[in-house]
Design goal:
The chain has three helices and six strands; from the N terminus they run E-E-H-E-E-H-E-E-H. The protein has a single domain, classed as SH3 type barrels, CATH 2.30.30.110. Strands 4-5-3-2-1-6 form a six-stranded antiparallel β-sheet. A hairpin with a 6-residue loop joins strand 1 and strand 2. The chain is globular. With 113 residues, it is an alpha+beta fold.
Length: 113
């Protein structure tokens, strides 16, 4: 089985079940090897930028590369493990500057990278 997603891909994920399911953007933080071995991905949730700043939040500077329609924030303190089937599509990927910021935020919040 070939992995579909790589670290720093921005994806649309289904959160919830059935009719209550909503699509939300998320940042893939797990490796292709993890996905191939388990059928799972680790993601950091992405939210619309607002005044509710939390520890580990980092603004996305290049929305276009990330495929995000509005100013957004990676919420490194809000990680989830999802089945690959919960990913609906790839939206884009973080640019180099945003990758550096995400690494710092994830390292501070959870010890990644």
């Amino acid at each position: 089985m070939s992995a579909l997603y790589r670290p720093f891909d921005v994806v649309a994920v289904a959160i919830g079940e059935g009719g209550d399911s909503k699509r939300r953007p998320a940042l893939v933080v797990s490796t292709p090897e993890f996905e191939r071995s388990t059928g799972l991905v680790w993601v950091a949730m992405i939210t619309v930028s607002d005044k509710d700043h939390r520890f580990g939040d980092i603004a996305v500077a290049d929305q276009t590369a990330a495929g995000l329609p509005a100013p957004s924030t990676i919420r490194a303190s809000k990680l989830a493990t999802l089945s690959v089937s919960k990913i609906k599509r790839r939206l884009g990927a973080l640019g180099e500057a945003d990758r550096a910021g995400a690494r710092i935020a994830l390292r501070a919040a959870a010890g990644f990278f």
